[in-house]
Specification:
The protein is α/β, with parallel strands linked by helices and 434 residues long. It has helices at residues 19-24, 50-53, 62-74, 86-98, 112-129, 150-155, 184-189, 195-207, 233-243, 265-269, 296-299, 322-337, 340-361, 384-393, 415-433, and strands at residues 29-33, 36-39, 44-47, 103-109, 137-141, 172-175, 212-217, 247-251, 275-278, 290-295, 365-371, 374-379, 396-397, 399-400, 404-407. The protein binds pyridoxal-5'-phosphate (PLP). Residues 52, 111-113, 116, 145-147, 218, 222, 251, 253-254, 279 line the site of pyridoxal-5'-phosphate (PLP).
């Protein structure tokens, strides 16, 4: 129980949440350890969604807090417009070493939206500086989410999350994603023909390849309800992008740093992009940090003398912050040194099998989608919020969708902890779908 009386929750706004109803039964998290959280009223929860796909190493890790404190005592802020710092250099070096050899350059920011936002600016300027000034349009996919700021929001494909903020930025085109039942072609043709990649080629050709700067895609679409792409989707997309001189941007803000059982999802989808956007798990939630990791080919047109004026025209005050970068380096090293990515793959497979078994057994369930430690448990009806509330009552937190709930525990979870999650989920689904 908190030692002090709490100020009113009406004084803060929570993301995507109606504050009046939130205030009636607020969730106010006070501390955490491993996969567990405690609220100010002393109630214990299992963090079934790693905060928001972020606390991948679990909560309450003293060693990461110590890294932040140690770095803060040396220098907690370095001016991003005229300097960098040893922590940022060390993390950039680590990221370049753990990605394939075509990646040479990193630009840091402080959140995932800044990473995708700047990926579009980088792509447009890349083409401009190579003499293709008309290559400005970005192709995104319906049901995608790439962030809440201007361009990143427009690149996303949920109309409901955008229309209130019209007029929207122009120059963004959307195509059907490989998200069944979103893919009408699959339904019509009775199976996957990768018609959704053909749709991207058609968009490129109809708009004119000379006008297309980039395609952005999440390797696994989370907010669409965790859709794993069909085999061959990204390899074919990669070929198309090369064919039409279009940059491929992977939004690995959720999938990066182990979530799908490999360090980056680009590894198992069989295609690497020209720009990797990452955030969230890069510090496992111990500091605010994100990055774009650029292939040589993208970085090269920005490399010049002062007089050439070809530098990137953008930056953010907290981008490459020394405390965040020191924590990021320690978090990524921990992920690798302790084989936490391997744990995500192994325990993730156990989790997936357990969810499948539940889905077969429970009348209110329809199926499971996902990979690694990222799953949607799909419901027969639009009972996502009801299941979420019933689970919260039982001390399990996850993310509700309309007819699914998304589970993504910290990557350090054990099989015993997964069993606890499955038991609580089962009870919640039974209550909410009865
Ligand atoms: N991209 C994806 C796939 C995301 O899920 C999110 C956030 O959830 C973002 C980008 C934006 O990241 P942030 O909320 O850190 O700005």
């Amino acid at each position: 129980m908190s030692e002090h009386p709490l100020p009113a929750t009406s004084q803060v706004m929570i993301d995507f949440t109606q504050m009046k109803s939130f205030g009636r039964d607020p969730l106010i998290i006070e501390r955490g350890k491993g996969i567990r959280l405690w609220d100010v009223f002393g109630k214990e929860y299992i963090d079934g969604v790693s905060g928001v796909f972020t606390a991948n190493l679990g909560h309450g890790l003293d060693s990461l807090v110590d890294v932040a404190a140690e770095q803060g005592r040396k220098i907690s802020f370095s001016p991003p417009t005229m300097a960098t710092n040893p922590a940022a250099l060390a993390l950039a070096d680590l990221l370049v070493r753990i990605t394939p050899e075509q990646y040479s350059t990193v630009k840091f920011y402080s959140g995932g939206s800044e990473a995708t936002e700047n990926a579009f600016k980088l792509a447009r300027q890349y083409h401009l500086q190579r003499g293709n000034a008309r290559k400005t349009k970005i192709i995104g996919r319906y049901l995608a989410y790439h962030g809440g700021t201007g361009h990143s929001m427009v690149a996303g494909g949920h109309a409901e999350w955008k229309w209130r903020y019209e007029p929207l930025n122009t120059g963004f085109i959307h195509v059907t994603p490989p998200a069944r039942p979103g893919c009408s072609a699959c339904q019509r043709l009775g199976g996957c023909t990768l018609a959704c990649v053909d749709a991207i080629e058609e968009a490129i050709l109809r708009e004119g390849p000379q006008t297309i700067a980039a395609v952005i895609a999440e390797p696994v679409m989370m907010s669409a309800g965790v859709h794993v792409p069909p085999p061959g989707y990204f390899a074919r997309l990669r070929e198309l992008c090369d064919q039409y001189d279009v940059l491929l941007i992977h939004d690995e803000v959720i999938t990066g740093f182990g979530r799908t059982g490999t360090l980056f999802a680009s590894e198992w989808i069989g295609a690497w992009p020209d720009i990797i956007c990452c955030g969230k798990g890069i510090t496992a939630g111990y500091a605010a940090l994100s990055a774009t990791i650029l292939a040589d080919k993208v970085a090269e047109p920005f490399w010049g003398e002062h007089e050439e004026n070809i530098q990137f025209w953008g930056g953010h005050t907290y981008g490459g912050n020394p405390v965040a970068c020191a924590v990021g380096k320690a978090a990524v090293e921990m992920l690798i040194d302790r084989d936490i990515v391997g744990n995500a793959a192994r325990v993730g497979a156990y989790f997936g099998a357990g969810l499948e078994e539940l889905a077969e057994r429970l009348p209110g369930a329809k199926g499971v989608r996902g990979i690694g430690m990222l799953y949607a448990f799909v419901l027969q009806e639009h009972r996502g919020r009801a299941v979420h509330l019933a689970a919260r009552e039982r001390g399990l937190l996850f993310r509700p969708g309309p007819d699914f709930v998304v589970l993504a525990p910290p990557l350090v979870a054990t099989e015993a902890e997964i069993d606890e999650i499955l038991a609580k989920l089962e009870a919640a689904v039974i209550e909410a779908t009865a």
